[in-house]
Structure of non-specific protein-tyrosine kinase:
Amino acid sequence: MQQKELQPKEEKLNLKKAILKYLYKWPWFVASIIICVAVAFIYLRYSIPKYQSKTTLKFDKKQNDLTSALADLDNLGIGLGNSDELKGEAAIVNSRPLLMQVVKNLNLNVEYFSAGDIKDSQLFGKTPITAKVLNYTKEKFPSVEYILGNLKGDQFTLHNAKKKDIVGKFNTPLKLEFGTVILERNSALALGAKYKIIFWSPIERVKKLEKTVQINIPDEKAMLMEISLVGSLPEKSEAILNEVTKQYNLDGQRDKNLQAQNTQEFIDKRLEVITKDLSGVENQKEDFQNRNRIVDLQAQAELALQNTSENTKVLLQQQAQLDLLNSLSGEASKGNNQLMPSNLGLNPSLEQSISQYNSLIISRNKTLKQATNENPAVIEMNREIASLKEVIRDNINEQKQTVQTGISQLQNQIKTNNNVIEKVPGQSKVYRGIERQQNLKEQLFLFLLQKREENAINLSVDVPKAKIVNPAFTEDIPVSPKKEIILPGALLLGILLPFGIFYLLFLLDDKIYSREDIKERSGLGILVDIPSLTDSENHLVQKNDFSELAEAFRVLVSNLKFVLPVKDTAKVVMVTSSVKGEGKTLVSVNLALTIANKNARALLIGSDIRNPQIQRYDSEPVKRKGLTEFLYDESVKVEELIHTSTTNPSCDVIYAGAIPPNPQELLSNGRYQKLIEQMSSQYTYIIIDSAPLMLVSDTLSIADTADATLYVVRSGVSKNILLDFANDLVRDSKLSNVSFVINDVSRRAGGYGYNYSYGYGYSQTKDKKSWWSKIFKS
């Protein structure tokens, strides 16, 4: 039969196969989950829970310190910066000097534990004993641990694993390796109880606090600071946080007082200087006013302007009046027959005289209408008119002199005021400069006086640097261990751990387990899967055998008939493998026992003359000649070689015989082919148990005699590379009509989930295995 052409297999992801590989290992997953969850429960049971404690501080944007006392100086161009940066304050909170004070106040350099069988319980606050370190002989030293025991009255013993026991008394100084301590008993100590005392170097405790005290600034604009600490004792963590905030405020108060004192000294010095400067400016102003006869330069300038304006108005009035008087004087120089202008706003006496004059003129003119100039009344009126006119002229002259004198005085006053006004700009410039210096000095003087009072108030009032919004409190849910994370994590780890291990094992595993593995790498046919057998099971097919092994070989015989050619002579089947230990001999023997019957006798030839194995299954009753003797001794007859199997009388066996020194030469001398040709007429089937192909070339010397080749691979033993070797042999035509037989297949086909059963309900009942053995079965 012509071997079908081999085609390279395209690798595809078989998701079902990949999943079934892991599902077959479910006992390991269950065991891993149980172990991981159990470990998690034990860890949660005996681990010491840690809780987070918090406190919140709020800062005012205006601090009562030097910055606030002089903050207004920024308006004068003096930049002093802002000292309440939250990040800077966070550094102060976590500073070593402050934490060192916390350690000293709370005696954190000494820890107390109540010793237990599995874990120790830490004590804090009201402890049965108190240990105080009076002095240190070493500044830095690792923690020192002592067990307090052997209590007899006031006497006790401190046990250290590395040092000898130390006996001491309560309330009595005791010298230890790092310094001197004193132990005080606070309450009755329980009999038989063990207390553990651990002494730390203070600097080491400070370093630990630096790492454990966490500072968070949730919102800089809100000026809030959150201080947190994670510890196993909430009351201890809260005490530490409260002490930290207390020391921080005390430190801020000390800084504030120190700065306030410095501010006070600064203000006093500045006041002294400003007072001297102000006194000098005031003296300069007084001297300038005395020299320039100035009381109020601005008022005097305004008064001069006002006087000049008023005097100018009066001057204009006087000049207008003088013009009237001159005009009136011209009228007065005329004859006595004309009336003179009146009501000109002149001197009342002059106006009265003019009015009388005009009345007399009018009366005389009326009289002249009835009388002559010689009339005594007219003569008397003329005489009075002439007299009044002379009085008017004199009055006008006097008035003119008075007005001219007033005009002269007004002109002098205007000139004087103009001189004053002309001096004002220069004097004002100098005066404003002096007043500016005076105002500045006065402003600084008053400002410093105000700030001195504010600073005095700051010194007398104790205001905390930061307000404690939330005193130290502890969250109810522990930070660690977190049950809601650890248990699911343990469950996940229980799944991932075996998954990772099996993934690596599967990744590194290059063995063949099932026919699916062969199909992925070869196009050759697969005739049967031989089930895996235990050492206690029978490895030979017996008469009337309905075991899984017998059923498998019956399937092999049935499938083999479709592979073998149709011929009148014996059909030759060669059974081979790549390496030793793959089960080719088991297949050869059981195939011969299964295929042989009364109507079709079978001959099994042990052709592996280097390492014969057939006798393991069907031992020779007596030592007789075998194939080796036939090959090198032509006198040996075939009849001398044949041995009838005790298991199946229809099956004959030719054993390999003695192991020769030159197997290759014997198998290739041509006598083997003559043996097959001779036996072909006597048997229906000839089964050849050949040598492994990869180890020796013996099998290739006799491969041409076979009508079909059964290539045996062993599940869980044979490697994938052996399939490539078999493919190459077929491709190079060194083997023909090749089919695979998979030996030692697990009932689950090596973990791939294919359950093979050949009994169809007729197989022998097997003892059920325990679940424990099933878990650890590979």
